[in-house]
Amino acid sequence: MFRNNVKVALRNLRKHKMFALMNILGLAIGLTVFVFGQLLLRYEATHDAFFEKASRTYTIGALAAPELNVGVDKINAMFSALAPIVEAELADVEFVARSEVREYLVGRGDESHYQAIRFADPPLMRIFDLDYLHGDETVLEDPSSVLITESAAVRYFGGTDVVGETLTLDNRYDYVVGAVARDLPQNSHFNSQLIASVDFELVLPIQALNRMEDFDLAGGWSDLSIGNMTYVVLPEGLDGGWLEAQLDAMYERIVPDHATQVIAEFWVVPLTYANLSIWDAPGIPVVEAVQLLSLLVLIVACVNYTNLATAQSLGRSREVGMRKTMGAERGQLLTQFLVESLVIATFAMTVAIASLEIIIPLFNNVSGKAMTLDYLATLPWLVLTVVAVGAAAGIYPAWLITRTSPIDALRDTARKGRTGSATRSFMIGAQFAISAFMLALVSVVYMQNQKIKEESYEFPRSEVYVLQRLEVEEIRERLDTLRFELAALPHVDAVGYSSQVPYEQYNSSTHVTRQPGDEAGRFSIQILSMTPEFLDAYDIPLVAGRNLSRDIANDRRSEDSRALNVLVNEMALEQLGFASVDEALNQSFYDLDEGDAAMEFVIVGVVPTQNITGLFNSLKPWVYWYQEEAMRIGSVRLTGGNILDVIRDIEGVWKRVIPDYPMQGRFLDEVFEDVYVVLRMMNAALAGFALVALMLALIGLFGLAAFMATQRTKEIGVRKVLGASSVQIARLLVWQFSRPVMWALAVALPLAYFASNLYLNFFAGRIDTMTPILIVAGGMAVLMAWGTVAGHAIRIARANPILALRHE
Amino acid sequence: MLKLHDLFKVYRTDEVETVALNGVNLEIDQGEFVAVMGPSGCGKSTLLNIVGLLDSPTDGDYFLFDENVAKYAESRRSVIRKRNIGFIFQSFNLIEELNVAENIELALLYHKMPAGERKRRVAAAMDRMGIGHRAKHMPGQLSGGQQQRVAVARAVVGNQPLILADEPTGNLDSVHGQEVMETLRSLNAEGTTIVMVTHSAAHADYAHRTVNLFDGHVVTDNTRAA
To answer: What ipTM was estimated for this complex?
Structure first.
């Protein structure tokens, strides 16, 4: 019987090739997206599982304190002070280790370049069982040794048998290779692009940090930064809940006041979730969104199939009648039709898997991931998906077609009547609602991105060449020389140094008040350290007062300054309570975070309120001051000239002034792209989903229109004989599909409004044209629907009426 | 074998009520060959559909093998139908996607019967109808007469005791029509009860008994001496 059912299914496919193609194609698209989404999530969610102690390993992060106000809810990183306390106080903890990420100039012989390095407590190598080619997990116990991975060893030394070889950091500090380990698989949080583009290549003992930058081995409470992780291994029987309870109990006692304004609570994260935990930071439900979108696409595909199959099955009424006459029970017929949809789902899955075999390597190539389609592991799940999809998509048409009595079926009354037409309209509507929803959302996201991009031109993005990594002592000493020589170059307008440049997501702030010690009037203000030329480099005008100067003692912050001349933006003035710009000049305000010896700031100049960090950040009060030791980035303002020549000139100057360190330069554009790329990729992913959903909906509409047109051929013939024009006929057919599409919009647009609002809440400066955008997107969906149906309608309406009448 | 008592069938569509069968009383014994005749719309096909359990009466009793099946639900009717009744239609009703052998096998498919046994019986039925050489052909590749022979093979392959034929020759020329009638006659000779609706007096002559319907009533019921 089953074989017979399959045979009939295959013959039916062959007989109705166009419908079969549309059915299989539609389902295949849906399945490809769905399976890909699931594989991606599975890949992201199974990072680090290969470590022996993975199930017992946790990282300690924190919930951000509300005062922090940097748009981050949770952060999977920790101050370096916590790990030593955990080790001292929680005897049950098996291992605890910190890992701090820094970038250093790493050299071997004459060659050197910047490289991210992990500095870790020795137990890190016991928590994570690496595969050692040479040396072993004791490597970090020697403060002067370094662990290197295979590919890095090959890169630096041309081979892996390199224990005993030397690497030099920052041209000064030598470390001896103590162990060589195989590269970690790509699916480890260590290598995850989600967390930071810091591959796991070099690991040094944390004592090395102490040697090179006076890192306090007992740790501190002011070094919270992405990449600085604290790992804990618990013995069997204890879990993350236990650890969190222990940490909660300690929080008030151990976390100093100023740090409580950064972290509100500890957050224990299982190691296997560490990779995904990054998405908890901005609170964007990325995982859930991918889950939901891929499921929506699959649902659209299923509905699509259901719709087409229902329409088609009506043409098989006579067959059903005959089978019933022969004694087929309803269950047997249901089985037959379900087997048919299973056959189609199987074909579709085969197509989907074939496409994934092409898509996954391409995706890996682009994304640097190592996703695989592991048939053995996923087969049961794939089969289950096929069965679920086949059943879900096929049950309605099967139910509908086997419902009629044998005599009605034989007479084919279903085809002539309007059986299931309400349901079909509903399903078309549902499909369109989903596609219109996505299309509308994509448009809003796109427009918001455009707005961010436009606003970013507040700063001369493409005319500023930034020089990074200036904070090294040896470079800082030569910054003045560098500035003079660069400024003398043709096409260089200004050279300013600062602690950060626009779009960098650094957050350096302090708390200030108008009156010293006035706790009630305090507010948080962002700090930008800069040289006077910074304003010229970015065309920042002075609203009032003067720029900072190198020649006035109080304009420059030093160790023992107690009063400092500063610039503030207009928003800071407002928050300080000054009524006008002029009133504020030469007035003071005070730093609260420096204890009793409050620093006095004197306002000597006012600049406009600009969005320095840009992107999704809100406008904030800023204070600009001049502090040599805080400079870490240079901004070279270019005016015309051949870009390549100018950069070659800049490089020449750098090589002359600072020959011992390589230049790290790029355009401000790229700094912006660093962060913007995340938004752009989200939009691209969303657009991809929306496009697929829309495509499916249009395929569905096309198929259904084709079918309905043949259904109504005779009616159309009669209408034409009675004098209907082609246009009237076309309008009739188009209108038939317009109503469900309109209903779909009525549902989709309010939902899209709601979802867009949620999304836009993430941004401080949001577009104010959301509603028109939604309406235009909805209108586009309708136009596309009309276009799809109209093609058919016109062709049929133009045909010779006698052809239509002879039909049947 | 079957007995209809005071059988009514009324079709209601919105405002109009059409009485297709108006108190039909009819008894048919095992082994009979009955022709049902009458003008268009007299209720012949309705009668046949009810006898074939494809449709249910609005009122009245229908005893099949002494069991009153008039009020049975479709699920029970389908079980009785597949055991006892074979059908032949004017329009053949062959399934386009199945070949000749598979169309015939369809009648056995819903019986719990091993595949070997099914094949054997299908082959026997095809031989009997002289269509064995067409086993792999699709219905569309056959002439009308051949298609009706396939339909007859499908009706007899299950060895059901009752065969209902609704104008079996209506779509055939006279030569092919006669062929089908001969087949029915020989089936009847072997003991199968046959009820046939026909417009053709010549074909009605193959039957032993002719029932005339008019406006939903039985108006004459003539049995010919054997």
So the answer is: 0.72
